[in-house]
Amino acid sequence: MGRLGECHPNDLDGMQRSGLTLGLAKARELGSAGILDAVEKAGLRGRGAQVFRRLQVACGGQGNSPVKYVVANADEGDAGTSLIVC
Prior knowledge:
The chain is mostly helical. The protein has helices at residues 12-17, 22-42, 54-58.
């Protein structure tokens, strides 16, 4: 939280100057398949009681529908979950 207050979360220009949009740019470059591949290679797993392998929860992104949904179990008790640090 050392960068807290450097910019306002609604200030897109400030976020770009601070480098806070680099992750989004990389995700757009990789595309859906590239993101899923990177997560799989990293061996990321759910936390707490939800220790699911990535493949168990990512199968919905493989459909042909133009509409996709992302579901995140964001526990507000974890300070980093719902906090945008600028």
